[in-house]
Design goal:
Elements: H1 2-19, H2 32-45, H3 74-95, E1 108-113, E2 122-127, E3 131-136, H4 148-157, E4 167-177, E5 182-195, E6 198-211, E7 220-235, H5 247-250, H6 257-261, H7 265-269, E8 286-289, E9 298-301, E10 310-314, E11 320-322, H8 324-327, E12 335-341, E13 350-355, E14 358-364, E15 370-377, E16 381-389, E17 398-406, E18 435-439, E19 445-447, E20 461-468, E21 477-483, E22 488-492, E23 502-504, H9 506-509, E24 519-523, E25 532-536, H10 541-547, H11 558-567, E26 572-576, E27 582-584, H12 586-589, E28 597-603, E29 612-617
Parallel strand pairs: 1-7
Antiparallel strand pairs: 2-3, 3-7, 4-5, 5-6, 6-7, 8-9, 9-10, 10-11, 12-13, 13-14, 14-15, 16-17, 17-18, 18-19, 20-21, 21-22, 22-23, 24-25, 25-26, 26-27, 28-29
């Protein structure tokens, strides 16, 4: 019976994959009504084997997306009003020839207390003749004399020079109110400008003290206390900054770039049927590898259902070739992630793709032509991420498959919902089970998840995983980043006979990091010879404001309340202590504020031998951007 099930699901997935390849749109043209009928028949015919999730991946429930009334939370009404005040200040800074002469009476109270926003004592923390960073020595001395907010701002922005491409941002992330018309807020400040041959930015954190008598009046500043200060300048050489956007020049020969990649999700969601997986969440990754064996890395891009995945072959002149159709990799099924790895040990880069239905294994002929060797349906949960390592030291690469939420068809009585809701929100344990697939050669594999101990704490909402020998004992350990709760660090305890047993040591090593885990990266950040860990999460200004209010989760216990607050704190940097444990250095290192982060990566971007951190961030916003992302 088990063999028959495996055979039927494999045939079913193969049938679906073949129908999801890029085809001539005019071939076998049928009406939408006829197509709907045929699709329904196909699903019914195969329902005995598996329930196929034709709806997109994404947490959707109308009750989850109802906006709370701002007036029910005084702190949010206050934030709304101070945001308007900062917007006025932003426009005043941009439009005034001299901030000294600008009218700022709309912002300050009659008892405004002046103090410098620029520190008297600074230290140069980095200078490589191209990039220079200066920081204020903390705590910043506020005893200097300055007259009025105009003079304070003039001194602050004077390093920016003449305003040419000035950008100013204020973001309030913490608010405290009292009943006496007084308020306190924490504000992130970011001001940048292009000055001749330099790009200059000022980043600071302010504690603002306000007078606010009623919800019908605008808050007025009583004083500003700068808590941190950073001045960064980057030289422009030959009209080029440190980084330049070369997208158009690289993709200029790709005729479909504008039509496919430069259209927003609103455009495609209104043109592709929902059942094909045109989800709004944007969970689509990419893989980098040398597909055609010419020594240059190529790019494979995963796309939502209904749009073809793309394989771009890089040329030595910096251009790319769209080889998606010719290579046989232009699947139109919703794809979350992919890996270029040499799965069969023949010295070329094979391709493994995680789709909404299961895993596709593609063999490379060494020249960038791919053929499907195997596909594996995963009925319980859609795979979200892939990572490869030789966990058992037998000379071939094994695959860890990270899964997110249970499919709606996996939960009795939940057929109307797209995905299972995480319960509890901050520490969920009702997600899909992850899998470890052992490579048994000849494109065969065995699911050994339970056998090797990886089914422990394996009901979470996984978005990323990464292998590394963090304890330097000669075998590969595994870190798993989970949304809505705790992460896993599975230590590989391989015995002298080669037997493997993984033990989840995240809690005892200090890297459980109960938050919104999105990605994970390993590197020796402090140059002490062992591997440190960076995990991207979610930094939310709204979350930080709300979670610290007394009326928030009044019935929650202390641990749960701390969990909700941690959920909005941001990214985490864990420094390896060398004794099997890690130290959380997120806040003191300045590495926590990555906004609503997704992918993150250690990389030496300026070739100075030190590991920098790149963080991609953002999410879908409402028509009127709240500025909270």
């Amino acid at each position: 019976m088990k063999l028959r099930f495996q055979l039927s699901t494999t045939l079913l997935l193969s049938f679906i994959l073949s129908s999801c390849k890029d085809q001539n749109p005019n071939e076998h043209l049928i009406t939408s009504e006829e197509g709907e009928k045929k699709l329904t028949q196909r699903v019914k015919q195969n329902s005995s084997s598996a329930n196929l999730p034709f709806k997109p991946i994404g947490l959707f429930d109308e009750t989850l997306h109802k906006e709370p009334e701002a007036n029910s939370w005084r702190v949010e009404k206050f934030n709304e009003l101070t945001k308007e005040q900062f917007e006025k200040l932003k426009k005043t800074i941009a439009s005034s020839n001299s901030i000294i002469d600008a009218d700022l009476n709309f912002l300050t109270s009659n008892s405004f207390n002046s103090c410098p926003l620029t520190p008297k004592e600074t230290v140069e923390v980095y200078n490589n003749n191209r990039l220079k960073i200066i920081k204020g020595i903390e705590p910043i001395d506020n005893n200097q004399e300055v007259s009025g907010l105009n003079a304070m701002l003039h001194e602050l922005i004077s390093p920016l020079g003449r305003k040419t491409k000035l950008k100013t941002k204020f973001k309030t992330f913490n608010v405290s109110l009292n009943k006496n018309g007084q308020a306190e807020s924490q504000v992130l400040v970011d001001i940048s400008n292009q000055k001749e041959d330099q790009l200059i930015s000022i980043k600071s954190e302010w504690t603002c003290y306000w007078e606010w008598s009623s919800e019908s009046t605008n808050p007025r500043l009583k004083s500003i206390n700068p808590r941190s200060y950073q001045l960064c300048s980057s030289k422009i050489i030959n009209n080029q900054p440190l980084f330049s956007d070369c997208t158009k020049s690289v993709f200029k020969n790709f005729k479909d770039f504008e039509r496919q990649f430069n259209k927003g999700i609103n455009y495609w969601a209104s043109r592709i049927e929902n059942r094909y997986g045109i989800g709004l969440a944007g969970w689509h990754g990419m893989a980098i590898g040398d597909a055609n064996g010419d020594g240059i890395d190529d790019i494979y891009i995963c796309e939502p259902g209904g749009l073809p995945n793309k394989l771009f072959i890089s040329k030595r002149n910096g251009q790319i070739i769209d080889a998606s159709s010719l290579s046989g990799t232009d699947f139109r099924i919703q794809s979350q992630s992919a890996l270029f790895i040499d799965y069969d040990n023949d010295n070329d880069q094979d391709l493994i793709i995680a789709t909404t239905i299961g895993i596709i294994f593609m063999e490379n002929d060494g020249k960038g032509n791919y053929s499907k060797k195997r596909s594996e349906l995963i009925p319980e949960s859609a795979p979200m991420c892939l990572s490869a390592s030789d966990y058992d030291n037998d000379g071939d690469l094994d695959i860890f498959v990270g899964c997110y939420s249970l499919r709606r068809s996996s939960i009795p009585g939940n057929e109307s919902a797209i995905l299972a809701r995480p319960i509890p929100y901050h520490d969920a344990n009702n997600g899909g089970r992850n899998l470890l697939l052992r490579n048994d050669r000849n494109w065969n594999f065995t699911n050994v998840t339970i056998e090797v101990g990886l089914d422990t704490n394996n009901r979470r909402f996984t978005l990323a995983s990464s292998w590394a020998d963090y304890d330097m004992d000669g075998d590969q350990d595994l870190y798993v980043a989970n949304d809505y709760g705790r992460n896993n660090l599975y230590r590989n305890d391989t015995d002298n006979n080669g037997g493997v047993n993984f033990v989840d040591v995240a809690a005892e090593t200090g890297v459980e990091d109960m938050s919104a885990g999105m990605s994970v990266s390993w590197a020796d950040a402090d140059l002490d010879g062992d591997l440190d860990l960076y995990v991207s999460n979610m930094w939310s200004s709204a979350g930080n404001r709300i979670a610290y209010q007394r009326q928030f989760m009044q019935k929650a216990d202390k641990e749960s309340l701390e969990g909700f607050r941690r959920h909005a704190r941001g990214n985490s940097l864990f420094i390896n202590s060398g004794n099997g444990t890690f130290k959380d250095s997120s806040l003191q290192s300045g590495a926590s504020m990555g906004r609503w982060a997704w992918g993150s990566r250690f990389a030496d971007i300026n070739n100075d031998g030190l590991q920098d951190i790149l963080v991609s961030n953002g999410f879908i916003t409402q028509p009127e951007d709240s500025g909270d992302l």
